[in-house]
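Hi, can you check this record?
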Amino acid sequence: MILSARHRRRILVVDDNQDSAESLTLLPRAAGHEASLATDGPGALRMAQDLQAKVVFLDIGMPASAAALSELLASVMETSRGQARPNGGRKSGRRSSSVAAE
């Protein structure tokens, strides 16, 4: 599937498990999105800032400090044009390992 530039998203997958991170990039890439991966907090922060990712799939169980994860999420939200939507855009109170910002 080929998406127009308007519909294509920059997606960042952050997971300390390399196999999981690689697997999570396959579907967005197959759908025509630009998907990148990072396997640690500092790398994820650099990539989020460089890529200006609009969608982040974040392993919230990674061995990283809460401050580093907060900084990553704040960076992604700052680069977004719209309002960040926690829980993957769902309005429920359930926790999710993803945050989407558009």
Summary: The radius of gyration is 13 Å. Residues 83-102 have pLDDT under 50 and may be disordered.
